[in-house]
Amino acid sequence: MEIRKATIHDVDEMQPLIQQYADQGLMLPRSAKSLYEHIQCFTVAVKDGKVVGTVGLHILWKDLAEVRSLAVDPGYQGQGIGRKLVERAIWEAEQLGVEQVLSLTYQADFFRKLNFHIVDRDSLPHKVWKDCVYCKKFDRCDEIAMVYYTQSFKSVHDPVASIL
Ligand SMILES: CC(C)(COP(=O)(O)OP(=O)(O)OC[C@H]1O[C@@H](n2cnc3c(N)ncnc32)[C@H](O)[C@@H]1OP(=O)(O)O)[C@@H](O)C(=O)NCCC(=O)NCCS
């Protein structure tokens, strides 16, 4: 299995992978146009010659990025692919100096395993909710807000702990 940055040639496979979960209300839909426009944000998992997983890392502000469109093909779940995709997104966030990686999710137990922590939704900046107008659950959102604190966060807020 290969984890690599997405290319424009992956979009035809990424779009239906995301759409099946958008249809279930698990994530926002992504048009092909949106994927092309934001392709640099995306990483894919490739196995058996096909795209079996996607994740997007979107920078929201100087200290905050968001994991979006995390999707693993149903036939390939439970093999560590979701974990590897999120770890790659976290690595990218670290490289960019971002302090916190956010996920708005229904998969709290999955993200807890990856050291994300539940935070108060009201503590998040308004720009986090910008795309919610595209969501079916706009007026009754029940997603859980979870944050991963990167090494950049630890070195700023707890410099002693970060070198221990
Ligand atoms: C959530 C999702 C990305 C997980 O991908 P995956 O490749 O099956 O997960 P992994 O195999 O990497 O699992 C990593 C760990 O999390 C656990 N895990 C996976 N899905 C879980 C879930 N829904 N609830 C609790 N634990 C879960 C695994 O057992 C594994 O634990 P381990 O390391 O102790 O063995 C995948 O199920 C998916 O695409 N779901 C539908 C779309 C979705 O909800 N995306 C999230 C939007 S924020």
UniProtKB/TrEMBL annotation:
GO terms for cellular component: cytoplasm. Residues 1-139 form the N-acetyltransferase domain. GO terms for molecular function: N-acetyltransferase activity. PROSITE patterns: GNAT (PS51186). SUPFAM superfamilies: Acyl-CoA N-acyltransferases (Nat). Keywords: Acyltransferase, Transferase. It comes from the Bacteria. NCBIfam families: PRK07757.1. This is Amino-acid N-acetyltransferase. It comes from Alicyclobacillus macrosporangiidus.
